[in-house]
Amino acid sequence: xxxxxxxxxxxxxxxxxxxxxxxxxxxxxxxxxxxxxxxxxxxxxxxxxxxxxxxxxxxxxxxxxxxxxxxxxxxxxxxxxxxxxxxxxxxxxxxxxxxxxxxxxxxxxxxxxxxxxxxxxxxxxxxxxxxxxxxxxxxxxxxxxxxxxxxxxxxxxxxxxxxxxxxxxxx
Length: 171
What we know:
- The chain has five helices and three strands.
- The protein has helices spanning about 15-30, 45-50, 85-95, 105-125, 125-130, and strands spanning about 35-40, 140-150, 155-160.
- It is elongated.
- The chain starts with 16 loop residues before the first helix and ends in a 9-residue tail after the last strand.
């Protein structure tokens, strides 16, 4: 049996095979030219990853809340309260939180995670191999955005890597 197939080596344990599969299909088969990595405000998963409470933690998602009003129930989940599957999924965000100042807010961690995930996408083999049109389309850029649940609007965070500057986060 060969060590790898004609598409290149198999992903290692550090590669998110679900994400890698989606990127591969989108870029090489569908011809997607722009990849958007988006985080969102009021993220309960990110709030649970914080090492200590932050001023905006009470605004994080809570299924008992109907708005951001001060009389709504506060977010009280902590890392240990999350199911094991969620802790595994969020571990990279938790690891990122541990590298940031102790007083980091939910919003700051969401934005830092978007930047980190843009880096991860840019480092992926499918992106590195398709900057110059090796797939059905020409990959033009990877961009970091923030979706505001409160307003339904997306904000460009100014975190972009393009085919003109494809290596800021390369391996």
